[in-house]
Design a protein that fits this description.
alpha+beta, Cytochrome p450, three-stranded antiparallel sheet, 17 helices, 12 strands, 43% helix, binds protoporphyrin IX containing FE
Length: 414
């Protein structure tokens, strides 16, 4: 193709921002696009249109997760060893999902609103008196793991350690977060661990200890609930519990952090919107959060592997081909969202794919993330009269997670 397209596989590309021009070009001219991999990978199909991403999401029997949900190919031994529920298909996935779902359902999560509010208040009030600080380091990074810690019943003293582990797992392409940058140093010794990282072992060990304590003395938290879950005589074994624990630490940590950060960035650019939040009805605040989620699309893609030859927009995709569902492109598809580059706090409907959609893998933490975002912004507007940029935001080096590592802000306290 004779157009200067950005390399959508390169982690470095995203340091400058999501290459929206490239995705717009692909949606218009080559929506099911064959992408070569610069690092010697075997290449993959990029799905960039909303309808195609939805089609793939909702047809898991054709678009399988079993061989991995990230771009990198794994050999069969690695694939087996590193499997979490994200890399399962039905019926294995359905079984596990049933066993872990209840604590994350809206009914359970709604019961945590006051706890989220208390934590948000604590974290924000720690900065009282400071007028210039980094929003990511002081607020967005602190809250999601603390909240998860509350859910899981973990001691507050362990939370900083867990945040760092979560960062090292997911941020395994950014040297600021790990010494084991996957495309820069040889990580082959860790290839059999989740996220190809030795950090997973530490988390397995931590999970085992937390579980052992609860076997002796059950508590009222999600970990105890998971230990007790039995559906039709079926329970989770130790490895499944360790894996699920590691997945929560990885999936619940930076996704919410960067959605909060990207959301605040919008409010900084739209002071009149920021000032309107206190007077908004709860439904309007919920709509605002949905638009922040679409706008941010922090999980930029998930990959699938075809189980059969499939025709899409005139192209023949072969069984075994890798297919990447670009959520970050689908959420900006002008054929689905009117004026997608305009932030519309009252966008309706707003059926974005930031958590996946019509997918058996739909984000398990979606209700929790939504609740956290709404409550944090409600608590922020109670405290800051104004908020503005105080420096240059710095983006994460990753083709997978889209976020800012730093958002220096200046605030005036109420
Ligand atoms: C704004 C924050 C978040 C975003 C944008 C996000 C995004 C996603 C996406 C796109 C998926 C895959 C959906 C698919 O394949 O169809 C996913 C899956 C998942 N998320 Fe989230 N997530 C967020 C927060 C959380 C939180 C707070 C938790 C846990 C505490 C969590 C746990 C999970 C789990 C366990 C899965 C795998 C579900 C499965 O395979 O069945 N996420 N998330």
């Amino acid at each position: 193709m004779a157009t200067p397209l950005a390399d959508i596989t390169s982690h470095d590309t995203y340091v400058e921002g999501v290459p929206h021009d490239t995705f717009a070009y692909l949606r218009a001219n080559d929506p099911v696009h064959w992408t070569e991999e610069s690092d010697g990978g075997r290449g993959f199909w990029s799905l960039t249109k909303y309808d195609d991403v939805l089609f793939a999401s909702s047809n898991a029997e054709i678009f399988s997760s079993r061989l991995g949900i990230r771009l990198e190919d794994m050999d069969p031994e690695e694939t087996e060893a590193r499997r979490t529920m994200m890399e399962m298909d039905s019926p294995e996935h359905t079984r596990l999902r049933r066993l872990v779902s209840r604590p994350f359902a809206p009914k359970s999560i709604n019961g945590y609103e006051e706890a989220v509010r208390d934590l948000a208040a604590q974290v924000l009030d720690k900065q009282r008196g400071n007028t210039e600080f980094d929003f990511v380091a002081t607020v967005a990074r602190e809250l999601p793991m603390r909240m998860l810690g509350r859910l899981l019943g973990l001691p507050d003293d362990d939370l900083e350690w867990l945040v760092q582990r979560g960062d090292a797992l997911i941020g395994n392409t950014d040297p600021d977060f790990t010494d084991y940058v996957v495309d820069q140093v040889d990580t082959s010794a860790y290839r059999l661990l989740p996220f190809r990282s030795p950090v997973a072992l530490e988390l397995f060990e931590y999970a085992s200890q937390a579980l052992a304590q609860r076997r002796i003395e059950p508590t009222h938290d999600v970990l105890s609930a998971l230990l007790e879950t039995t559906i039709g005589g079926d329970t989770l074994d130790e490895l499944a519990l360790q894996n699920f624990f590691t997945l929560m630490v990885a999936a619940g940590n930076d996704t919410t952090r960067y959605s909060l950060t990207n959301g605040l960035r919008v409010l900084i650019e739209r002071p009149e919107l920021y000032r309107r939040i206190p007077a908004m009805a709860i439904e309007e605040r919920k709509a605002l959060v949905e638009e922040m989620l679409r706008w941010s699309t922090v999980t930029m893609h998930f990959r699938r592997t075809l189980t059969q030859d499939t025709e899409l927009r005139g192209k023949t995709l072969k069984a075994g081909d890798k297919v990447v569902l670009w959520f970050s492109s689908a959420n900006y598809d002008e054929e689905h969202f009117d004026n997608p580059h305009e932030f519309r706090e009252d966008r309706s409907p707003n059926d974005h794919v930031a958590f996946g959609l019509r997918s058996s893998h739909l984000c398990l933490g979606a209700h929790l993330a939504r609740l956290e975002m709404r409550v944090v912004f409600e608590e922020i507007v109670k405290r800051w009269e104004t908020v503005e940029l105080a420096g240059t935001p710095e983006r994460l080096r990753s083709n997978f997670i889209g976020g800012m590592k730093q958002l220096p802000i200046r605030v005036t306290w109420i």
